[in-house]
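Exercise 7.
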Amino acid sequence: MPHSRLSPRAAHVLLADLPEATLRRLEIYAKLLQNWRRVINLVGKSSLDDLWVRHFADSLQVSEAVPEARRWLDLGSGAGFPGLVTAIKYADDPEARVHLVEADRRKCAFLQTVMRETSAPAIVHCGRLENVLPVLDEQIDAVSARGLAPLDALLGYAEKFIDQGAAGVFSKGKLFEAELTDSLTAGKYFITTIESQTCSAARLVLVRPRAGGSGPV
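Solution. The predicted structure, written as tokens, is:
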């Protein structure tokens, strides 16, 4: 039986201790995702059958990697994973704010709809990364991305924020090791990996500046 047809708390340990208010918001998100998928291609049907683990739990572990962070920047947000899930997790925290950057206008409309229906503390920036990021001047605690680009490209996008003390948390699949080149691991960033709690072959790549920057405050 697909996880999405079970009680959300039975789907994965990452969901087990969520407050009822957070679960209700994720239920709203799930219903909107089902409805909107009939109009635009947000996620594949096979992954929708395993929504609570493959997308929700998988996204929740990103914010757990930097538990002190409340001000997030999510690159290439798409259907909202992991950035919109992060915003929903912290919906009742007045310090939280998640910037979602997405170039596709239809996906931006979806993200804005979920934000409105769940009261998620997020801001959608509808535009290309190279246009949005240079003019985004807010303090950022952590930068996330999932399935967007190779690690060296992600570091190029996130560079100014990591240099200012933010952590990078990037979800990577089973071929992640090929992206950890000597030039990256011996460079100005301290790069570690965390085993994914939802896929044994995947990793979270955690990037921090080697020196300077105060990190999340």
